[in-house]
Amino acid sequence: MGDDDNIRTENQKSNLFTSFRCRLSRGEDLQLPRMLSGTTWAKALTVALLERSVGGSCNNHPLASGSPHMLVPFFELDLYRKSPEPDLTKFPSSPRVFSTHMPLHTLRQPLMNAPCKIVYMCRNVKDVLVSRWHFYAKMAKKEVERSDLESMVESFCRGVHYFGPFWDSVLSYWRGSLEDPEHVLFMKYEDLKAEPCAQVMRLAEFLGCPFSQEEKRGGSVEKILELCSFGNLSSFDVNHTGTHNIFFRKGEVDDWKNHLTTEMQKKIDMVIQEKFQGSGLEF
């Protein structure tokens, strides 16, 4: 993919952001940005937390009949790409939950006028690149090719991506979470894997639906983690249809060690060290 294929025209960006700002200010919405960084898991957990009184078992829970990406659609990919004025009345529940790949600065203005909360899921970029490599191969219905991974690493190091450089997105939400922790929650995929119960309770608290002591004693936290586990979600029929299955591969931490060469690792580490120096954010 070349540079021109990764960049929207300024008119397209302007139209999307203008429409987005107008619609976002009309209601409460939750955003879960960035593709292939654990977004599927974050969407599932958010739905499970907000809908935990719905359905007595996994089989009749909304997640059993709707893919996380159906239940939490992307603004720019699923809604605004089809229409500059999408029908958001199809999402009547409050809070409504949507996701976006857009950087934080595009959300600053609407956030001033709307009680909107943002959950940002960050993941080690090396795992993101490997996940993206497999994702695009599945999309193209072909085997993974080493040359594609090499090209992705080079594009990353040059900051070339359809939604902008990785570091711009991550740092904007990281700083936003420090400046406005009431409205921006920064989560790490690796932390969620290492201490799932603590991180899910942290997410629930942020979303305004904390677990009661009775729920904790009754194992509600563990039940939600089981419902949203990789094995359980990937077993639902809805995630086997269409393109939904391409969002499920391994869900592991440090899988990049099985694919990236030493040279690739060094290139990525140099960029990360340069771009994140002094930010206080570590991977």
Automatic annotation (TrEMBL):
It comes from the Eukaryota. Residues 37-280 form the Sulfotransferase domain. The keyword Glycosyltransferase does not apply. Keywords: Transferase. One of its GO terms (biological process) is sulfation. Its EC number is 2.8.2.-. One of its GO terms (molecular function) is sulfotransferase activity. One of its GO terms (cellular component) is cytoplasm. Pfam families: Sulfotransfer_1 (PF00685). InterPro entries: P-loop_NTPase, Sulfotransferase_dom. Belongs to the sulfotransferase 1 family. This is Sulfotransferase. The lineage of its organism: Eukaryota, Viridiplantae, Streptophyta, Embryophyta, Tracheophyta. The gene is BnaC06g15020D.
